[in-house]
Design brief:
This protein is of the alpha+beta class. It contains 14 helices and 15 strands.
Length: 324
């Protein structure tokens, strides 16, 4: 491994100034991606600027929505009860990313700035309408997460800029979200495909009967028919998909098709087909394109159903986990 100088700034401003003054420098936080690239000789920085001593990048603030510092670890996010209940999709991603040892050091900023299509926290941030807070020599700016991803390993950061954190809006009690990571095995693995969903619902008739419908072991067709009878309407929706395009994407046509519609099996079948048409996966060692497209139809429905379940049964412990 090539030798390098290691710098430990204690403020964001100090880090930005170091990046401007040093040649061939790279930021490093948890190091779970940077050190792998270093060992594989894909990068060879002469200077590493550590962000781990900058306290201003480590926070989880639950006032006025949710604010998370870019150096907050995945373990801290996974353990946070407020995130688990109110921003469930993010909790889903944080609890299934890598091993416990990796989650203890890996940061959400690092996961996002790598801009990999398989980044687990990308889909949750897309469905939660996150804003990326960026700091550089010209000051602070804010970018929609959907505009932050430019392509594989490409994000909307100017030279020297740092992602300071993420800000997500507050959602009401009638909003739920979920992220499903589909892998070849249950143990630590990268996603073959990832799907996130967030929906806001309005129940026209009885919430108690919707609750009863979800508590049954009936097949999904009958559950959806009972929810349709109770006029469960989708007021707003977000769907995001990972590993189906060069960057994590939203299924915007599917989202639009959901708004204002009453839940039904026919609707969910149509939404799956629309989302599949928006996916452009490729063959890879983890899965072939045709299989990924087929799984989009399945996982979009599951993510939507899990989001509904979390709205209607927020305090129920569901075991074994239902696949829908």
């Amino acid at each position: 491994m090539r030798s390098f100088e290691y710098h430990k700034p204690e403020t964001v401003q100090e880090a930005v100034e170091l990046m401007g003054a040093l040649d061939n420098a790279k930021y490093i936080a948890g190091g779970t991606d940077v050190m792998v690239l270093f060992r594989q000789k894909k990068i060879a920085p002469a200077n590493l600027i550590s962000l781990r001593s900058i306290n201003d990048l480590v926070y989880i603030d639950e006032q006025d929505g949710l604010k998370i510092g870019s150096a907050a670890t995945l373990s801290a996010i996974a353990k946070d009860e407020f995130i688990k209940r109110s921003y469930s999709a993010l909790n889903d991603a944080a609890t299934r990313l890598g091993s416990l040892q990796i989650r203890n050091v890996a940061t959400m900023g690092g996961n996002i700035c790598n801009a990999a299509p398989s980044a687990d926290t990308a889909c949750p941030l897309l469905v939660l309408d996150a804003k990326v807070i960026i700091v550089g020599q010209k000051g602070e700016r804010e970018v929609d997460i959907d505009d932050f991803f430019l392509g594989p390993n490409k994000v909307a950061l100017e030279k020297g800029e740092i992602v300071k954190g993420f800000h997500m809006p507050q959602f009401g009690n009638n909003t739920g979200s979920a992220y499903i990571k589909h892998t070849r095995r249950q143990a630590m693995d990268l996603p073959m495909i990832g799907v996130g969903a967030r929906i806001t619902i309005k129940i026209g008739k009885s919430e108690a009967r919707c609750h009863d419908a979800l508590c049954t072991i009936d097949n999904i067709s009958n559950v959806l028919a009972r929810l349709q009878d109770e006029e469960l309407e989708i007021e707003d929706a977000r769907i995001a998909m990972g590993v189906v395009a060069p960057r994590p994407i939203r299924a915007k046509q599917a989202e639009a098709a959901l708004k204002g519609k009453v839940v039904s099996e026919k609707l969910f079948r149509e939404i799956g087909e629309i989302a599949m048409s928006e996916a452009q996966p490729r063959d890879s060692i983890r899965g072939e394109a045709w299989y990924r497209k087929e799984m989009v139809k399945v996982l979009v429905r599951r993510a939507l159903m899990r989001s509904i379940d979390r709205i209607i049964r927020p305090d129920d412990t569901i075991y074994p986990e239902r696949l829908w």
